[in-house]
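ugh finaly. both done.
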Amino acid sequence: MEQPRFAPIVQFGTSRFLQAHVDLFVSQALEQGAAIGKIAVVQTTDSPGSTARIKALASGDPYPVRIQGLQEGLPVDILCWSSSVQQAVHAASQWSLLRQAFVRDIQVVISNTGDQGYCLDDADNAHLLASDARAPISFPAKLLVLLHGRWQANPDEPVSLFPCELVARNGDILRNIVVELAVAWRLDEAFCDYLRGQCRWANSLVDRIVSQALEPVGAVAEPYALWAIEQQPGLTLPCTHPAIVITDDLDHHERLKLFILNAGHTYLAERWLLDKRDADETVYQAMNATALRKDLEAMWREEVLPVFAALGQMSSAQAYLETVRDRFLNPFLNHRIADIAGNHSMKKLRRMQPIVELAGQHLADLAQPKLKAALASDC
């Protein structure tokens, strides 16, 4: 008996972020006839939380996503139901099924595998290409085995891959890791050419605060959502949606998020540490502290926006800043500054130093006292 068809979109990861971001986009697009099909979710870990989510998702029943926050200064509190997930499988126990589906049915791959998602495992090797082999441990090795099987069966059928991990140039990086692994496994050069030249590895940026999981599956998220995807020929999108932006300048979207939203969070964390503010203070509370709000607004206005102006991007920066104010003033979101303050020194270098460096290149007279003081402090 022929196996039932798999959904055309396979998703590695069960996170609440994906449930309220990509999965919800596809669900809403399906209602408009604007998606290529439904999603098969793959559990790649053995964590109890992931197992419970996979069990709930496997039913195919719609799950809730509550959208709470501000939009253009007005409160939003709506309940959506996402019905994009058709199947849910466990990679380790259903690997053979996934390999068969990847050869036959899959058009798009989506991933959000966490901070260690691109790490390799020494236990993975070329013997795992055998038809009866276990599933590889690492995500890149799983992809390599699946893509190799697809190439053997359908060498003219590439796949579009959309990594959603928060890594700059995530598509390029994941592609290079998979190609280097193929070389290390001494696989056919024609297969390596297939990986490099025919498969479409999309660089993208995801942005949405998903503040809470709902049990057994579902999430609470803010109204703002963005999936910025770098344009490239031959890319198959999972769907079209107002929150999906296809762009020739992904760096611009990354700068907006890094310099305005992320640097704003890090400035609040810097002041939280320096001023020894309340241990449980939230971003919402900080934004309602008059003096602190004034200082943050001054940093954005006097030290960050002039950099975007020098790049010819002032209007988009001002528009994005308006959305960030709404997000910081979200009364539903319990976003503790103590959580933002983790790895603070590293975050300052990543989020603030590039603003100062760009100002040095384009605006030599821009003082940037708040940014420079934060970079110089021992917090």
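ok and the 2nd:
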Amino acid sequence: MLGKGICIGLLFGVPAGAVGSMTIQRTLTKGYQAGLLTGLGSSAADCLYAAVGICGLTLISDFLLKHQAIINLFGGCLILTMGIKMLRHQTDAANPQPGDRAADGLKMFLSSFTVGITNPAAIMTFLFAFSWFGISGSRNLGACLALIWGVFLGTYCWWGILTAVTEVMKRKRKLENCGWLNHIFGFLMIAFTVVIFIRLFVS
């Protein structure tokens, strides 16, 4: 189960969208650890939805899918807020005060976790993945935990790769502390919000 979970995480956890932009932007402006913390939040959200899917928690999944429009709207507003915040800052605080590092790290984790958790459709993605790999709902706690842990390892592997590549590019091109980076990623975040809102109105 662990191996299948890792494969599912690798195949379906490819970084894209708002969290991918957040990870790149934070790696460029705040460093390697900031990127890893951002990816960690997204992986935690994926694990939660994978757990709902594999454990057959239909009460939770039905509730989330029934109210996914409202949840998506909340996520879109959050992404829009972060995009506007990026646009308003010419430069980022590359060297935060020591006392603020723990709080900043927690904020990075929670922000990406919230963005990831506001996509209830991910449950259906994992259900499809489980079916494709021949995994059915199981009451074996050990097997469920191994699968969920594998999903975490697989998805977080992608975030680690993205963060590492971004860090290498930052050092080679000396992109650290460039105010225009916040503008670029701010516009990207707003663009993702527009896509979310369009999907909501169309559906």
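summary for the 2nd one i guess: Residues 91-99 have pLDDT under 50 and may be disordered.
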